[in-house]
Amino acid sequence: MHDKICAILMNELFSMWKILYQLASPKRFYELTACWMPWLALSSLFLLLIGVIWGLVFAPPDYQQGDAFRIIYVHVPCAFLSMGLYAWMGFLALLCLVWRIKLAGVVLTACAQTGACMTCLALMTGSIWGKPMWGTWWVWDARLTSELILLFLYGAILAVGHAYQNKDQGDRMMAILTLVGLVDLPIIHYSVYWWNTLHQGTTLSVFAKPKMAASMVYPLLVTIIGFSLYCLLLVCLKARNEVLLRERRQRWVSEVV
Amino acid sequence: MNALMSWFEMHGYAMYIWPAYGLVFGVLITNLVISYRRGRRTRLALRARVVRS
Predict the structure, then answer these.
(1) SS (H, E, C) A80-100
(2) Do B10 and A254 touch (CB under 8 A)?
(3) Which of A49, A135, A246, B22 has the fewest Cβ atoms within 10 Å of its own Cβ atom?
(4) Does the beta-carbon distance from A68 to B13 stay under 8 Å?
């Protein structure tokens, strides 16, 4: 029985690795993402529309913050993705450094550009939300400062990537810097517990019951999924472009264009 | 009409909520359009190179 389970697990692992290996081929990636993109565009547009209308029109105002809390429907998805994309970049950095998968470097760059944009938006919308609630646009609070450090990390990773003429070398340096910067993620997450901060504690958690009413949480979940699909679409668009540029001397590129 | 105006005013928080939404969706759309146009330009440039050769 035990041997059978082990064999099934090994088989599953092997097929997963096979899929990953197939995806790692630039040509296969280009073909696959061409099929994904229309679906990603439609589903993200649909979910973003539903989530935003639900949050702005149908969700009830907060008992303390009133209608100002509605900024949550754009602020939290941006903040979630700023960290989520960085965590994903950590996995890509491992693929790039350990297995030397070239495509991982391409997707890493696309993720860094998208993540930097999301971090910037999270900081700006947080600042706009902070003005009516805290009476100031910015405080050197632990959560805000660690998120700002994340933006600098994204900037540094992109700058390092651009600094190298040799793309493979640039990808490796970006991957190393990404792995070093991973230490900022737990700091951002736990900053509201480790220090006394103006920023509120975690509202949504995977393992705990949400601290918000269901009528407020559902639109938030919808916008988070919508933003995630949008980011996936943007990463695909950017990565496809970079793949074409890097593989321009290959025969499949002339056939595709 | 009054209900619509009152919703738009967001009980005095309109000057914070609408700029935040405008900023986010403005950036999302601009980013998408720029990436799409860059991709199209790359494909056209590569196609021209293939035709030339």
Answers:
(1) HHHHHHHHHHHHHHHHHHHCC
(2) no
(3) A135
(4) yes
